[in-house]
Automatic annotation (TrEMBL):
Family: In the N-terminal section; belongs to the NnrE/AIBP family.
Annotated binding of K(+), by residue: 59, 122, 158
Protein species of origin: Streptomyces beihaiensis
Gene giving rise to this polypeptide: nnrE
Keyword ATP-binding in record: yes
Domain YjeF C-terminal stretches: 219-481
Cofactor: K(+); Mg(2+)
Binding site for AMP: 390-394, 424
Name of this protein: Bifunctional NAD(P)H-hydrate repair enzyme
Gene3D superfamilies (UniProt xref): 3.40.1190.20, YjeF N-terminal domain
Lineage: Bacteria, Bacillati, Actinomycetota, Actinomycetes, Kitasatosporales
């Protein structure tokens, strides 16, 4: 499990550790890790040109000490100070005595040092940053973006919000971020995540209480432990039956794709209810189709409702009144009424993309994309449901009161190739199937997103994929995860 902590929790752990260590020890650990990461990226330190962008806080101090270490190994290191009179004094002294050069930030305009550097180290601000970068700092971020060299962010790319992943205006775009003690939510959530590049976590000895994690990301082992597995005494009903209410005369394909996902999600059988039975059966003869309303379809352990429904709300009341987990996607999100969803006793999972989430919240789509974490939590609270917000970062928020052990999850798999019509239908079927197989709502959503993202990577392998390809790749990645 990868965990991220908010700034307040990191600061508390930092204070506790600092009280037990000699002064400056933590910064030395951070700088040693940073210098080693820079050396790895450069390949050859001796003779390389390094520009340090140095703010007036400890983030700048880390950059200065790391710069001193690299200068001692033969790099040509120049520090550009944003506030020369407030820069970290002992860091500056260390850099100078290692042979580094120190200039004011304005010197970049005349010297072009940042543009010519092999490596730019962004020590402008870290977890002490507030709001958008100030103008001079923003100029350095722009210069770094135009540089031929690599950019490494110290702790966080300067200009991104550590706790929320929002980005106000100009922010550094790093090829890699070397972060200390713990991941911060902003490193895992877009739009900030896109600024961070490859992540490297340096252990500086901080002790962080697992129960205080702000965000978690399942890894292979965690997902492997959650995957349903039939036992000797299993039969198709004991494995769970998932019911799919999807498709319309206009969108029969959505039904086929949701069933395609459901058939690969571990349930023992898939029931289909809706007007696209012919299309579903001709592609998947193993589906149990039913002509009447959901209530007459026979028992299921979970329902999926919504993909391609259009305006047909006729099955919704049956599904929402069923005492089994329900996943609501696509058109179902628009048709379901918040009060009815809130009143449900069995779990509800909702899977909007940013546009659908924006419509539910009554805000612009851009706001959801800029504030994903706040948006998904707000929806989970409003609907008292587990909400999976899709997009470049997929987030899963549990309903309020779901226990402290259940922070928001961020999905670590996926690829932009997934942005293809119908791939969301596959995800809803897959996740519904995992619900029917008995996974808890947040586990089903996180496992569904994980397998779906991995299947897309596997199927794409650098080329376009269709939603069907994603569904077809699920068994292969399931095997991979099981190891
Ligand atoms: N946690 C840990 O365990 C460890 C933490 N360590 C390191 O300490 C870092 C935190 O250091 P920190 O607290 O000194 O704050 P930091 O990020 O340097 O920023 C403050 C400075 O930025 C400025 N500033 C603020 N906003 C700005 C803006 N928008 N645009 C421009 N400037 C802005 C602000 O200016 P002021 O408001 O004072 O005028 C102030 O000068 C942390 O990220 C990590 O690298 C490691 O060394 C060891 C272990
Ligand atoms: N930029 C992106 N990067 C990674 N994944 C994306 C991106 N955009 C969309 N996705 C993923 O693609 C899928 C699209 O689902 P959705 O928007 O519901 O499409 P549809 O309704 O056509 O099925 C979701 O799993 C979503 O997380
Ligand atoms: K930084």
């Amino acid at each position: 499990m990868r965990t991220a902590y908010d700034v307040e929790t990191v600061r508390t752990a930092e204070r506790a550790l600092m009280a037990r260590l000699p002064e400056g020890a933590l910064m030395q650990r951070a700088a040693a890790g940073l210098a080693a990461a820079c050396a790895d990226l450069l390949g050859k330190v001796y003779g390389s040109r390094i520009a340090l962008l140095v703010g007036s806080g400890d983030n700048g101090g880390d950059a200065l000490y790391a710069g001193a270490r690299l200068a001692r190994r033969g790099a040509g290191v120049t520090a550009l100070l944003l506030s020369p009179d407030r820069a970290h004094a002992s860091g500056l002294a260390a850099l100078r005595s290692a042979g580094g050069t120190v200039l004011g930030a304005e010197a970049d305009a005349s010297t072009g040092i940042v543009g010519r550097a092999d490596l730019v180290v962004d020590g402008i601000v870290g977890i002490g940053g507030k709001g958008g970068l100030r103008p001079r700092a923003a100029q350095l971020a722009t210069a770094a973006a135009a540089s031929d060299g690599l950019t490494v962010a110290v702790d966080l790319p300067s200009g991104v919000d550590a706790d929320t992943g929002t980005v106000h205006g100009e922010a550094v775009r790093a090829d890699a971020t070397v972060t200390f003690g713990a991941y911060k939510p902003g490193l895992l959530v877009d739009p900030a995540r896109a600024h961070a590049g490859a992540l490297r976590l340096i252990d500086i000895g901080l002790e962080l209480p697992p129960g205080r994690a702000e965000l978690t990301a399942l890894q292979h082992d965690d997902v492997a432990a959650l995957l349903p597995e039939p036992a000797g005494e299993s039969d198709k009903y004991r494995r769970g039956v998932v019911g799919v209410v999807a498709g319309s005369a206009r969108y029969p394909g959505a039904a086929v794709l949701a069933v395609a996902g459901a058939l690969r999600g571990g349930a023992g059988a898939v029931r289909y209810v809706g007007p696209a039975a012919q299309a579903v059966l001709s592609r998947f003869p193993e589906t149990l189709v039913s002509a009447g309303p959901p209530a007459g379809a026979g028992r299921v352990q979970a329902w999926v409702i919504g993909p391609g429904l259009g305006d047909d709300a006729s099955g919704l009341a049956d599904v929402l009144s069923a005492d089994v987990p329900v996943l609501i996607d696509a058109d179902g999100l628009r048709l379901a009424d918040a009060k009815t969803v809130r009143a449900r006793t069995a779990p509800t999972v909702m899977t909007p993309h940013a546009g659908e989430a924006a419509a539910l919240l009554g805000v612009e789509r851009g706001r959801v994309e800029a504030e994903r974490l706040a948006s998904v939590r707000e929806l989970a609270e409003r609907y008292a449901a587990t909400v999976l917000l899709k997009g470049s970062t997929t987030l899963i928020a549990p309903p309020p009161g779901d226990g402290d052990s259940s922070p928001t999850r961020v999905n670590p798999t996926g690829t932009p190739w997934l942005a293809t019509a119908g791939s969301g239908d596959v995800l809803s079927g897959l996740t519904g199937s995992l619900l029917a197989a008995g996974l808890a709502p947040a586990d089903a959503a996180a496992t569904g997103a994980y397998l779906h993202g991995l299947a897309a990577r596997h199927a794409a392998d650098g080329a376009p994929v269709s939603a069907q390809d994603v569904a077809a790749a699920i068994p292969a990645v399931w095997r991979d995860v099981r190891g």
